[in-house]
Amino acid sequence: MRYLRHRTALRLCAADPTHRFHPEADTVPDDGICTVCGGALYQRDDGDHVRRLVGEHEARLEPVAQHYAQQHLLLELDASGTSAEVTSRAVIALRERSR
Ligand SMILES: [Zn+2]
């Protein structure tokens, strides 16, 4: 999923798409102008690409999830929120299961 966040946040230069800016790695110019060549920056519409990647990821995950579910070793939980919140939910769920 980190890859998906990276792609969706990426800003590309309209004049030269090899000039790329990512908020986590670079300073995205506030004025939306490429600092390399002065071209306009834009955010690519990756909706279809992201949906396809998520679909592929889920297709690969499903057989693994079914395998562990059949052995009663699959624990599902809400993975929304911060990593600390998800970790806390996972620890609580594992403790409840081990009782
Ligand atoms: Zn540029």
UniProtKB/TrEMBL annotation:
InterPro entries: P-loop_NTPase. Gene3D superfamilies: P-loop containing nucleotide triphosphate hydrolases (3.40.50.300). This is Adenylate kinase. It comes from Kitasatospora arboriphila.
